[in-house]
Amino acid sequence: MVERYVMSIDQGTMSTRCILFDHQGRLVSVGQREHEQYFAKPGWAEHDPTEIWSHLRRAVVPRALEGAGIRPEQIAAIGIANQRETTVVWDRRTGVPVGHAITWQDTRTSGYVEELRRTTGDDFFLERCGLSPTTYFSAPRLRWLFDHVDGLRERAERGEVLFGTMESWLIWNLTGGPDGGLHLTDATNASRTMLMNIRSLSWDDELLAYFDVPRAMLPEIRSSAECYGMARALLPDVPICAALGDQQAALFGQTCFAPGEAKCTYGTGSFLLVNTGTELVRSRHGLLTTVGYKVGDEPPVYALEGPIAVTGSLVQWFRDRLGLIHSAPEIETLARGVEDNGGCYIVPAFSGLFAPHWRSDARGVIVGLTSYITKGHLARAVLEATGWQTREVVDSMNADSPRPLRQLKVDGGMTSNNLLMQFLADVLDMPVVRPMVSETVSLGAAYAAGLASGYWPDLEGLRRNWHRAAQWMPTMDPARRDAEYESWQRAVERSLGWARS
Amino acid sequence: MAGPVQSIERAAAILRLLAQGSGRLSLGEVAASLGLAKGTAHGILRTLQSVDFVEQDKATGKYQLGAALLHLGTSYLDINELRSRSINWTDALAARSGEAVRLGVPLEGKVLIVHHVFRPDDTFQTLDVGSLLPLHASALGKILLAYGATPLEPLMETDLESYTRHTLDSPQRLSRALAEIRDTGWAFAAQEMMMGEADIAAPIRGQGGLVVGAVGISGAVDRLSDSKGRPHASLVGLTRDAARAISRDLGAGRW
Ligand SMILES: Nc1ncnc2c1ncn2[C@@H]1O[C@H](COP(=O)(O)OP(=O)(O)OP(=O)(O)O)[C@@H](O)[C@H]1O
Ligand SMILES: [Mg+2]
Question: What is the reported pTM?
């Protein structure tokens, strides 16, 4: 019998990956390609959707197939995970995007968002979509486009242009584009737009009216795991059976299927999510309520989320903008050259601070500089920033949840950094555990697709595939931990209020 | 015997040229100085750039000597980068073989463990990244010796420490074993360091095919080998596949 595989497509902030997994959930091959980051003005961050689709078609998927030496017929199902909140609008007839995609890191809407909060207040939004307005979510961006692109609102009204996040854009193209492409999204992605009602999982009339978004341009909201239709371009006749926001996909890939189970994914930013079951939990400590996943006709599973905007991208900045290292992993080599941070702290509030602070007026600071500080100390401070930002979110999580975290499951590119993982265990004072697949975003999309297509029978079977690949135990002296945390918090205070709008 | 390779001579001349004077030259200047066609000079410069022997200034387009030349002789691949680039394949190797995976590079006459993936049975295990193994008594170490990733001579001059009765403790036995490894492309060490334990390893190649490290699985000798003491072919195959996948990602080309 010919072996069959599940394909995942992970459309991320920095790159797009395609990974094939076998029946035991083991990685078989990878295709990956980075795309251009457009920073046209301070605070702006865009991608070219056409470039991303063309990379997927020309390089990413072909490479994965070639690496495994298989044909499209051997793919049981495709699952898609994607960078969330990133906003794409395109012409339904030609398939041409209206400008670039405006990404989740883009803060151009900060003035508008502040006005919303001042005039309308958070409660109106919290009640309907579970989110307070920030520049992070899609709806303010859509509004920005209407206000800046002539005639766009009218074209949207007439159904001539379509809106979507990245998974919608890719699925539409994969299923035929202008020629009958399916226009859909899943509940996890829709839960980040500020347009979906968090209870009914449908577009909310009052929110649509508030943001003045015509229904005609919106994708249909579907389950995260169900077969939507067949691909036509690129992978003819392979069913597309899952779509999830990347962080929810990682929750699924870490098999956090029971309430209280949590994971943190370390990529461009870092995102801690805890499963709260079918119950909607409101945070009182700066976390978001979001859809975790929705499998077929089953009720949705919700999650509490603490997003951290800048973690891996700080390492990237250290590499590309400061030029102190050649590759991201080299930061560990540099950091190990010194004993400690030498009293130096970096708060990477590049686009304000996300959870738990939610301060768009914060900007990055480096404090504690003396003539003693070397690039090694700076490298330490870069890595420690990820540790302390996680600590803040874990503290909020524990304050909100009746079940305190006892260990942290981690995944993503930064987990190959042993110094950082040890530091994380030290500052959290709990074991940090990495599973045998660190591309957990991709694995989760594959799991959801494999589940919907019958490639895998049930959640329990998936759980049995999870194995511990590495574990770090806390060893830091408690007094030192407390003193360092206090210094970090003082550094954070200094970052607040720097930007004047 | 074949004569000298012209393109290598030209590459050497370009490097000498860049090492002189201010060291920043345009393509036209390089070509003119050496009497080469621009296309020829460009091809050589691009190749030198791809192995980091030459760098091109983004703004001016001028060429200069690359950072890698300064580090010739020291390991050019950062060990943390090696771990990062291997992680997908070492995870898959552990999952497929059911055994713990380690990645080793040479350090001062020992094998330095730079990456460790637990045996996938969820029992309590501790990371041993940073620990050192003897070169002559582990499959990882024998790979490094066999492929010249670390010099063999120092070992040949001293007494080889005997850990068990299976340790290859004479220079003759070790040399024979290394020759065999070069023939087969993989190494096996059964109870050579500790009774009951074995490991299987294969070479990781970087750019140009240079061996920069070794990857292997380790575990109980009865799990890794058959009743005749030979390692299971399937485990050898999985280890070599992982080593090839990592090498491909490091740019080793046809390996
Ligand atoms: N060894 C390392 N130490 C520190 N940071 C690292 C290391 N390796 C990778 N990174 C950082 O991790 C990030 C890459 O991780 P990963 O591949 O998981 O992210 P990503 O999936 O590309 O992000 P996104 O999904 O947002 O595109 C980069 O920002 C990089 O700087
Ligand atoms: Mg990602």
Answer: 0.87
